[in-house]
Amino acid sequence: MERTRYTLAQRLLHWVMALMVLAVLAIGLTFMALDYRGTVETFGKQATDALYKYHKTFGILLLVLTILRLALRWRYPAPPYRPPLTGFERLAAGGVHVLLYLVLIGMPIGGWIATAAGGYPVQFFDLNLPGLIGKDKVLSETLFGLHGAAGLLPDIRGLEGAPPAPFPPRRRGLGAPWGPL
Ligand code: HEM
Fold first, then answer.
1. Does ligand 1 have an atom closer than 6 angstroms to the CB of 24?
2. Which of 3, 15, 62, 78 is 20 to 30 Å apart from 127, CA to CA?
3. Over the chain, what is the mean pLDDT?
4. What is the pLDDT of residue 146?
5. How far is the CA of 20 from the centre of ligand 1 (A)?
6. 3 state SS of 128
């Protein structure tokens, strides 16, 4: 029988990841707005160190969860949209999903390499993970530039005042894990 919504594990993963993305982005945008020095002046050195540590930790966790999510999606393919999409809408939705997966994989890997190339620790909770690359200031700055630019993508998408989409909403069962569709 064809499923009408995602499995419970997929729905839970979706919402846990959504919260983690919000947290990681909020911290990243704080760094972008205040810079290291401004963050220390505003929150103090200890809190700033914790923000860096948990930004990196949750970013790496997001990479792991994205891989798990792709594996689950391969095992349990997405249910159909209701009402169905037109060919163009299907293409557009598929394209956006691929882009989101690329961001969710590229951001953590880029952040990891940029951090290591800058000579900073790649923290995962209280562990320091291997940097995987030697010190390279130019590479680090270039990658951090891309890291910041990609971080702005979801924010632009969510700008207040964006015109309503010219088509009715479609669902395929990613609503709250405990509730109806
Ligand atoms: C989905 C995961 C991630 C997202 C959405 C994200 C997003 C961001 C954003 C928007 C910024 C601000 C960029 C700027 O200041 O121009 C930032 C900064 C930073 N990110 Fe990430 N990040 C992620 C994962 C990671 C990971 C895994 C690491 C390292 C292991 C990392 C390390 C850093 C560092 C060190 C900064 C500060 C850069 C600076 O002070 O110039 N990020 N991140």
1. yes
2. 15
3. 90
4. 96
5. 13
6. strand
